Amino acid sequence: MRPQTLWKVFAAALLLLFVAPFVAFAHEQVTVGPYTLEIGWVDEPPLVGLKNAVSISIVKTDSEEPVEDVNTLEVTVSTGGQDRALELRPAGEDQPGQYAADFIPTRRGVYTVKLSGAIEETPVDVSVDIEEVADAAELQFPEALPDAQAVNQAASRAEAAAASANTTALVGVAVGVLGVLVGGLALLRGRRS
Description:
Layout: H1 3-23, E1 28-32, E2 35-41, E3 52-60, E4 73-79, E5 82-86, E6 89-90, E7 98-103, E8 109-119, E9 122-133, H2 148-192
Antiparallel strand pairs: 1-2, 2-3, 3-7, 4-5, 4-8, 6-7, 8-9
């Protein structure tokens, strides 16, 4: 192999090394009738516990003209056998044809976006898997923050311990009051005798 060819192969491999991580974040593209839809996340990479949104771009396939006012389009997101309908909103006045549906992913894994209803007069019934949601700890530095679920479990245990301590204290007060009453009755009987 000639040195120039070897250099080109090396440069291409180096380019792939830097470009490959970004390719994974590409949105899924589907065609529905005369429209092209691009579906993915607003913020990538998507992380567990952080607010994000499903991003939907809609253009006319032939002219690439943005499609606005898709108020009959419904968005449902699902993972792990659970579904949730989301409210679709325009991404912004300066972004025609761009829409978002906000939510906070709370579980690692792949989420499926289902679009149903209609775009203008064209019926829509599409399901697309979007990029996998990752654990936020993978990107935290210098150390990972405590797991929110573990923190909630610790708080629940602390609340249960506090409730148990309150119950024990109330029983102690009741026994003390009863002891004072019995002692007072015994004192009164002792004086009468």
